[in-house]
Amino acid sequence: MQIEHPDTNASAPPTQYSSERLDRLVAERKTRKKWLLIQPKSTTSMMVDSGTVSMPLNLLMVATLAAELFDVTFIDERLGDPIPEDFSGYDVIAITSRTLNASKAYAIGDAAKAQGKIVILGGVHPTMLHDEAREHCSSVVYGEIESVWTELATDIILGKMQPVYKAESLKPMGSMRRADFSYALQTKNAKKYSSLIPILATKGCPVGCNFCTTPTIYGKNYRYREIDFVIDEMRYHQERLGKQKINFSFMDDNISFRPAYFMELLEEMAKLGIRWNANISMNFLHKPEIAELAGRSGCDLMSIGFESLNPETLKSVHKGSNRLDNYETVVSNLHKNGVAIQGYFMFGFDNDSEESFQLTYDFIMKNQIEFPVFSLVTPFPGTPYFDEMKPRIRHFDWDKYDTYHYMFEPNTMTGEKLLENFVKLQKEVYKGRAIMQRMKGKPLNWVWFVNYMMHRFTKKLTPEIYL
Predict the structure, then answer these.
(1) Among 209, 214, 428, 432, which is most buried by a count of CB atoms within 10 Å?
(2) Which cofactor does it need (predicted)?
């Protein structure tokens, strides 16, 4: 197959790309091009792609969109689905990538490209480093595919690909299709997927933490779907599974950024009898009525980025939504309403000291944080933090950009001391005695099981694992 590549990614005339022309091109073809969508696994030594994994909602949405015009095959390597060596049965190989599996995505792209296929790379890492990604594909999709779909699909049919597809503006979410889960469920390994059903209500987060990739992808945009659409999708899954009480996991970057929208959504969800969890900013969770509504609507877990107990660290990473004087109030409000907390804590900032670990331990134990998650500060490419820290970063081995590998030495302690305390904290928090203290009075559910698994996992940790 001969693939043409224009020298630039200049905007095409309006008449060149339109839904009408795309429909006409499809109608003129006697056969449909064949897509292979690939979710690659990572090679990290930590528990990223082990056990049950989440359904890749974004890739399923790509499959749903592409299937209107093309024949689509879906592979999730994390489940054990093999990646074919021979791509002769496909015209387009589309691969999604995060930083920690970029090398695997690139290897697949190189192999498919060598066989003359149209290779598309998308996801966070190709968006952040599109010049690097272009070396391993025909085209990079910058950000979301929905906003460049007409241009991309037209060029695929014509076989004339642009190096990068980047939207001048992002489409409203009202036009977003409901993902067709059948692509993921048809594999024999589908039982390895989590029972949590991924769903999306909003996109973007204007908070602008300097270590976060979201602002680069979406800018300061914050978009949301009509609440009726979200509720209809939940009802669809209730009907699909034949039961009312099912568990949803919101994939939103910050579902609570617009409080009025969030509260209206929860009021409607409260009528459904479902359970749910989400990543959430704590910028207004100190208000007891929010926590009460969350509990009443079926929330069983909120994932909160506490990040640090050091106010100078929070200031340095622009985490303005986090106020230390609200931390305990937020936790108390949620616990009073039966909502468990997955708390994220990062270490390795320049303001960290050995005391930071003790402060974090004390906070977790005092406030009975059910599921503490610890990570090492990782400057991801494409973020302001990466640009700031680049001269000090120890390596650029993308396989180790999993938030569990030591990236640079803080100003206030040696790397050896950082890792020694990092391991010690995890072992202490997940000791049997500490688990019993943190989980005292909590309902016997899956969170207990997670703690048991973390107890077994942390017992084996050594500082060398994180190098």
Answers:
(1) 209
(2) [4Fe-4S] cluster
User: Which residue type does 421 have?
Assistant: N
pTM of the predicted model as reported, rounded to 2 decimal places:
0.92
Domain annotation covers residue 175: no
CATH of the domain at 152: 3.40.50.2300
* Strands ordered across the beta sheet of 164-165: 71-76, 34-39, 92-96, 118-122, 139-141, 164-165
- What would the two tokens of residue 30 be? 């006697």
Q: What span, in angstroms and rounded, lies between the C-alpha atoms of 376 and 415?
A: 11
Q: How does pLDDT run across 399-435, given as a tens digit for each residue?
A: 999 999 999 999 999 999 999 999 999 999 999 999 9
Residues 134, 94, 123, 344: is their CA dihedral positive or negative? negative
CB atoms within 10 A of CB 116: 13
- At 4, the pLDDT band (50, 70, 90 cuts) reads very low
Please state, in angstroms and rounded to a whole number, the distance separating the CA atoms of residues 217 and 225. 18
User: Do residues 216 and 159 share a domain?
Assistant: no
Q: What is the span of the domain harbouring residue 123?
A: 19-165
Q: How is 436-450 classified by DSSP, letter by letter?
A: HHHTTT--SSHHHHH
For residues 146 and 19, what is the distance between their CA atoms, to the nearest angstrom? 13
Within 382-458, strands assigned E span none
In this structure, how many other beta carbons lie within 10 angstroms of the beta carbon of residue 373?
16
CA–CA separation, 122 and 124 (whole Å): 7
pLDDT digits (tens, 9 = 90+) for 258-270: 889 999 999 999 9
Q: How far apart are CA 226 and CA 223, in angstroms?
A: 10
Helices 259-269 and 227-241: crossing angle, nearest 10°?
A: 30
The total of structural domains in the chain comes to: 2
What distance in Å separates the CA atoms of residue 126 and residue 124, rounded to the nearest whole number? 6
Q: How many CA atoms lie within 13 A of 58 on its CB side?
A: 19
Tell me how far apart the alpha carbons of residues 329 and 341 are, in angstroms, rounded to a whole number. Answer: 13
- Each residue's pLDDT tens digit, 345-398: 999 999 899 999 999 999 999 999 999 999 999 999 999 999 999 999 999 999
The reply to whether 170 falls in a domain is no
Number of neighbours of residue 195 by Cβ within 10 angstroms: 11
